[in-house]
Design brief:
Layout: E1 15-19, E2 25-31, E3 34-38, E4 49-51, H1 55-64, E5 68-72, H2 74-103
Antiparallel strand pairs: 1-2, 1-5, 2-3, 3-4
Length: about 110
Protein backbone atom coordinates (compact mmCIF):
# COMPACT_ATOMS: atom_id res chain seq x y z
CA UNK A 1 0.00 0.00 0.00
CA UNK A 2 2.94 2.35 0.44
CA UNK A 3 3.81 4.91 -2.19
CA UNK A 4 0.34 5.89 -3.29
CA UNK A 5 0.09 9.51 -4.21
CA UNK A 6 3.78 10.18 -3.88
CA UNK A 7 4.37 10.37 -7.59
CA UNK A 8 2.03 12.50 -9.62
CA UNK A 9 2.60 12.74 -13.35
CA UNK A 10 2.17 16.41 -14.18
CA UNK A 11 3.16 15.95 -17.78
CA UNK A 12 6.53 16.49 -19.33
CA UNK A 13 7.94 19.66 -20.76
CA UNK A 14 6.37 20.31 -24.15
CA UNK A 15 7.41 23.92 -24.58
CA UNK A 16 10.02 26.52 -23.68
CA UNK A 17 10.08 30.26 -23.46
CA UNK A 18 13.56 31.75 -23.67
CA UNK A 19 14.04 35.41 -22.77
CA UNK A 20 17.31 37.06 -23.76
CA UNK A 21 19.05 39.83 -21.88
CA UNK A 22 17.54 42.54 -24.09
CA UNK A 23 14.00 41.21 -23.54
CA UNK A 24 13.54 39.32 -26.81
CA UNK A 25 11.34 36.26 -26.29
CA UNK A 26 11.70 33.02 -28.25
CA UNK A 27 9.15 30.23 -28.00
CA UNK A 28 9.70 26.58 -28.77
CA UNK A 29 7.11 23.81 -28.77
CA UNK A 30 7.34 20.10 -29.20
CA UNK A 31 4.78 18.33 -31.34
CA UNK A 32 5.38 14.61 -31.52
CA UNK A 33 9.12 14.17 -31.84
CA UNK A 34 9.68 17.45 -33.66
CA UNK A 35 10.51 20.81 -32.09
CA UNK A 36 9.20 24.01 -33.62
CA UNK A 37 10.22 27.62 -33.12
CA UNK A 38 7.35 29.91 -33.81
CA UNK A 39 6.22 33.46 -33.86
CA UNK A 40 2.65 34.60 -34.17
CA UNK A 41 -0.58 34.35 -32.29
CA UNK A 42 -0.83 30.57 -32.27
CA UNK A 43 1.08 27.39 -32.96
CA UNK A 44 -0.72 26.95 -36.30
CA UNK A 45 0.40 30.33 -37.67
CA UNK A 46 2.69 30.42 -40.65
CA UNK A 47 5.57 31.67 -38.51
CA UNK A 48 6.45 28.20 -37.21
CA UNK A 49 9.51 26.33 -38.40
CA UNK A 50 11.10 23.06 -37.41
CA UNK A 51 14.27 23.10 -35.28
CA UNK A 52 16.64 20.10 -35.45
CA UNK A 53 17.33 20.15 -31.68
CA UNK A 54 15.59 18.82 -28.59
CA UNK A 55 14.01 21.06 -25.98
CA UNK A 56 16.63 20.03 -23.44
CA UNK A 57 19.44 21.04 -25.86
CA UNK A 58 17.82 24.41 -26.42
CA UNK A 59 17.29 24.95 -22.67
CA UNK A 60 20.86 23.99 -21.74
CA UNK A 61 22.35 26.27 -24.41
CA UNK A 62 20.14 29.17 -23.38
CA UNK A 63 21.04 28.73 -19.71
CA UNK A 64 24.75 28.57 -20.55
CA UNK A 65 24.39 31.92 -22.36
CA UNK A 66 22.69 33.42 -19.30
CA UNK A 67 19.17 33.60 -20.73
CA UNK A 68 16.03 33.05 -18.69
CA UNK A 69 14.34 29.74 -19.55
CA UNK A 70 10.77 28.87 -18.59
CA UNK A 71 9.61 25.29 -19.12
CA UNK A 72 5.99 24.84 -20.13
CA UNK A 73 3.72 21.83 -19.70
CA UNK A 74 0.81 20.99 -21.95
CA UNK A 75 -1.57 22.61 -19.44
CA UNK A 76 0.51 25.82 -19.46
CA UNK A 77 0.43 25.90 -23.26
CA UNK A 78 -3.33 25.25 -23.36
CA UNK A 79 -3.92 28.14 -20.94
CA UNK A 80 -1.63 30.40 -22.95
CA UNK A 81 -3.34 29.51 -26.23
CA UNK A 82 -6.82 30.08 -24.82
CA UNK A 83 -5.74 33.47 -23.48
CA UNK A 84 -4.34 34.40 -26.90
CA UNK A 85 -7.57 33.33 -28.62
CA UNK A 86 -9.60 35.39 -26.13
CA UNK A 87 -7.36 38.40 -26.75
CA UNK A 88 -7.68 38.02 -30.54
CA UNK A 89 -11.50 37.88 -30.29
CA UNK A 90 -11.50 41.02 -28.12
CA UNK A 91 -9.25 42.89 -30.57
CA UNK A 92 -11.42 41.85 -33.53
CA UNK A 93 -14.52 43.07 -31.71
CA UNK A 94 -12.91 46.44 -30.95
CA UNK A 95 -11.75 46.86 -34.56
CA UNK A 96 -15.27 46.08 -35.82
CA UNK A 97 -16.73 48.69 -33.47
CA UNK A 98 -14.19 51.30 -34.60
CA UNK A 99 -14.92 50.52 -38.25
CA UNK A 100 -18.67 50.94 -37.79
CA UNK A 101 -18.13 54.16 -35.86
CA UNK A 102 -15.85 55.55 -38.57
CA UNK A 103 -17.73 54.34 -41.64
CA UNK A 104 -21.28 54.78 -40.42
CA UNK A 105 -24.23 52.66 -41.39
CA UNK A 106 -24.50 51.55 -45.01
CA UNK A 107 -27.23 53.06 -47.15
CA UNK A 108 -30.00 50.81 -48.33
CA UNK A 109 -28.94 48.85 -51.37
CA UNK A 110 -25.24 48.74 -50.59
CA UNK A 111 -24.22 45.12 -50.24
CA UNK A 112 -21.14 44.37 -48.25
CA UNK A 113 -20.45 48.08 -47.60
Amino acid sequence: MGGRGQYVNRGGTVGLTVTTGDGTVFEYRQKGKKVFSFSGASFADSGSREIPKTLSDIASRAKSMGYKVQKLTSRDLANKDSEQRRRKRQIAKEVDQLWVRGAGSPRKGWKGH
